[in-house]
Amino acid sequence: MARTRNAGSVRKMKPMILVLCEGETEECYVEFLKRRYRLPIKIVSKVVGQRINERLVGRILNELRLNASERIDCFLMYDADVATVVKSIQSCKNAIALLSRPCLEVWFLAHAGFVRGLDFSTADCLRKLKTVPAWKDYQKGFLTAVQQELLWRNRHSAAKNISSSPSEQCAFSTIGNFIEILESAVK
Q: Which pTM was predicted?
């Protein structure tokens, strides 16, 4: 006997998560999160680069949307080292900014220890990251299995190790907020 489908039950789709990135490192990190959380994350990277603006975000959202009721949560993952880019990102009403100062690697560094209140350049951040044994051979745009395991294991403590306030002139990252959103999406 064939099974019949209950006409009243409609399968609800999870919202799509769109992450527009600045470059390869951000894309690599989001791909890692996508695999670990098993979520429908679409990544648009490099093409956008520093030319990000509200009109471009709106166009990409419209291209991805299959119907008017489909929900797409949009995030912009960028380094907060260029003031004009940060200002442009913050003016995008259809997206949530995921910023790290001076660069995404400061978020990686927060997985290894406390960086709250520190202020350093991108070069200083990369140098400091490479002093951590798991990151000594770090290459932009690539995460080793050991690095991925550290990022996964310490994802909750990293948010406590770094400020999430962009108003401070010190190192910060709002990526901890993104992790919380992903955690709630899988529940």
A: 0.88
